[in-house]
Amino acid sequence: QGQPAGTGGTPANTETILLGQVGALTGGQATFGISTRNGIELALKEANAAGGVKGKKLAVKVYDNQSKPEEAAQATTRLITQDKVVLILGDVASSNSLAMAEKAQAAGVPMITPSSTNTTVTQKGDYIFRVCFIDPFQGFVMAKFARDELKLGKVAVLQDNKSAYSIDLSDVFTRKFKEMGGTVATTESYSQGDTDYRAQLTAIKKTQPDGIYVPGYYSEVGVIARQAREVGLKVPLMGGDGWDSEKLFELGGSAINGSYFSNHYSPDNPDARVQKFIADYKAAYGGVPDALAALGYDAARVAIEALQRAKDLSGPAVRDAIAQTKDFPGVAGTVTLDEKRNAVKSAVVLKVGDGKTQYVTTISP
Ligand code: PHE
Question: In Å, what is the CA distance from 210 to each residue of 223, 235, 259, 312?
Answer without folding.
Answer: 20, 6, 12, 56
